[in-house]
Structures are given as C-alpha cells and as structure tokens.
Design goal:
Elements (H helix, E strand, L loop, with lengths): L1 E6 L4 H10 L5 H7 L1 E8 L19 E5 L5 H10 L4 E4 L6 H6 L1 H22 L7 E7 L24 H20 L2 E7 L1 E3 L8 H10 L4 E4 L5 E6 H14 L5 E4 L4 E3 H15 L11 E4 L14 H6 L8 H14 L1 H8 L12
Parallel strand pairs: 1-2, 1-4, 2-3, 4-5, 5-6, 6-10, 7-9, 8-12
Antiparallel strand pairs: 9-11
Helix pairs in contact: 1-8, 3-5, 5-6, 7-9, 9-11
Length: about 350
C-alpha cells in the first residue's frame, strides 16, 4: 500500500495533481499504486489555498496537514503518523519576480526544504526499501535558449539565471546526490511553463485575464518577444503520476507541452478569446496591452524536448494550446469568487521584481 505525501499540494500544480489522483479518471493508477492515502503537506503561504482542494476534501483517501517542509520535526511527525512511503515533492517558491525582491525565501524553501525532506526520508525509510521520492522541478534551471537552439532535454547543462532558477537547480543537485550517495529511489522531472485553472494571479495568464476583465492595463515585459513552452496543468499532473509509477530510479524526465509562443502572442490570443466570450463595451481587450520595463535578467526562450517522457512513461499531452487556453479562460470567467478571494488578500496584482 502506498501512503503518498504531496508537498505543496494546496498550490497550483500540487492541487491539480491531488484532484487528478482522487478522480475517477485515475482509478487505474490508484489501483496500481495500491493507494492508501494522499497526504497533503502545505504551509498555506500566499500561493497555497485550501479552496483549490475543495473538490476532494471529502474523499476517504484525502488527508491535509498544515506545515512547513523546513521544519524537520514536523516533517518527521508526518512521515511517522501517516506511514509515508512515497513522496511527490512540489512545495516551492516559484515566482521569478518574487525571487528578485527576496531571494532568501527561495533558498529557505527550495534548497533547505528539499534537503529536510530528503534527509527525513533517508532516516525514516528502511535502507533499500525502494520507496520513491519524485522531485518536481523546472526548465528554468537550464537557462535561456537562442532562437535556433535545440530544446532543453535531460542532458542539457544547468545555467540558471535568476535566484529562483538557482535555488531549484540546487534542489535538483541535492536530489541527484541522495540517489547516488545513499541509493534512494529518486526521480526528477523538469517541466515547462504550466497554466490552467486555480493558478495564482501573479502568473502571466491569470493576471492578463483578470486585468482584462476589469479594464486594467495588460503589462507586457520588454518587447514581449520572450518565448515559453506552455503545458496545461492537468497534462503535467498526468506526467507526474506516470513518472512516479514508471520512472527509473536516478533518471530525469523533461516534461513539456510542445507549445512555443511569445508572451505578446499569448496575451493577444487571450484577448481574442475574451473578445469572443465577453466583448468589451468599447474597443477590444488588446487595446489594454501596455509595454513595461523588462524583468532583470529575463530569459529569452524556453522549450522542452519531452521525447524521453513520451517513450519511457507512455505519456503525451492531451491539450493543445488552443484547447487548454479555452478551458482556462472559461474557468476564470466561471470562478470569479475564487479570483476575488485571492486578490482581496495580500496580493493585489502589483508589479514585483524590480528591486
């Protein structure tokens, strides 16, 4: 029986994973796992939100613990109380702009927090138990691509350019070291930019949707020519389940949506989708596009080659960027109460990352 710990499970990607794991769609995966419980450990900082887990809070396999992954005693207690024998580690500070303003929080959570989890697993789990630790990371650890460069893959050298990316790179190296030094059953994944329902509105897509609906400026950094590879969050969640079930110990899997688009093109696509669904009284949403000072050290292009994940994990994304964006826009239009609760808190969509 697998008692699975999902760190950061009340966040955007973590909650998508938990909702999928406990859905009818994942029944076969639960049977393969012999899933006994899904224990969410989340500190409920600004980006963690119990409302993200409302659809599964009554599920008999669901458990929630509020706690910080840097608290070794609390983590150990969770391991012992719930007999944890599998981990999908998603808890992280993840917004580049915030890392520019305050790198210390990123070092604490992403580096020290990952170390605490790995060390607790090493101490608590029986040696050679085979219990799995899936470490979830980002393509930003690889740095920036030029237009003609091949996409990132599992063997791309690390070249992080922001405090966020550097902190995630450090955590990746720790995960690798615990596999090679202690023989832990560690698998690492590096994903491209995620999007979809329940995303905290400091990220590009929900920020643009909410600002547009309120007639506020749509801030595009620099010339808007930065290219990202967009991955629908439910597709990423399915990839994580596949990596946990079928990934090889010590291996890395790059997970991407094969959807490269410039930020400006993406914003214009969102505006067109909103125009179809909820036309403005005067003009179009694209009239709100405003070019602003670029982020310091802004990476120009990310792209993922997911060939290995497709072949070894039997995974591929189901959503195209067209279908995924349509689902995302529709969700935000239908869930304004969730959005209002977020923006009435400590984050009011102000510009970050200029310090």
């Amino acid at each position: 029986m697998t008692n699975l710990l999902v760190t950061g499970g009340a966040g955007f990607i973590g909650s998508a994973l938990v909702r999928l794991l406990l859905s009818e769609e994942a029944r076969q995966d639960r049977e393969e796992l012999a899933l006994g419980s899904v224990v969410v450990l989340d500190a409920l900082t600004y980006a963690g939100n119990l409302a993200n887990l409302a659809p599964v809070q009554s599920h008999p396999l669901f458990r929630f613990v509020q706690g910080d992954i840097t608290d070794a005693a609390a983590v150990t207690q969770v391991f012992r109380e719930y007999a944890i024998n599998g981990i999908i580690h998603l808890a992280a500070e993840s917004h580049v702009d915030r890392s520019i303003d305050d790198p210390s929080a990123f070092i604490r959570t992403n580096v020290d927090g990952t170390y605490r989890l790995l060390e607790t697993a090493r101490r608590v789990w029986p040696r050679d138990s085979g219990y799995r630790f899936l470490h979830v990371s980002t393509d930003e650890v690889f740095g920036s691509l030029r237009p003609a460069d091949p996409a990132f893959c599992e063997t791309t050298p690390y070249a992080p350019n922001s405090p966020y990316a550097a902190s995630k790179a450090a955590s990746d190296h720790l995960a690798r070291a615990y596999h090679h030094t202690y023989g832990m059953n560690v698998v690492t994944s590096n994903c491209s930019n995620n999007y979809g329902p329940y995303q905290f509105p400091e990220k590009l897509i929900p920020l643009m949707i909410l600002n547009a609906l309120e007639g506020r400026p749509l801030p595009v950094y620099g010339d808007g020519g930065q290219i990202r590879d967009w991955l629908f969050v439910d597709d990423h969640a399915r990839a994580l389940i596949a990596a946990f079930l079928h990934g090889k110990a010590g291996e890395v899997y790059t997970i991407g949506g094969d959807n490269e688009m410039t930020n400006l093109e993406l914003v214009c696509t969102l505006c067109a989708g909103l125009n179809e669904r909820r036309p403005r009284a005067a003009g179009t949403y694209a009239d709100l596009v405003t070019f602003v000072q670029d982020r310091p050290g802004h990476d120009r292009r990310y792209a993922i080659d997911a060939t290995k994940a497709r072949s070894e994990l039997d995974w591929s994304p189901r959503e195209t960027l067209t279908t995924g964006l349509a689902r995302t826009i529709d969700w935000y239009l239908a869930n304004r109460a969730w959005c209002d609760a977020i923006t009435q808190g400590t984050y009011r969509r102000e510009r970050l990352g200029l310090n």
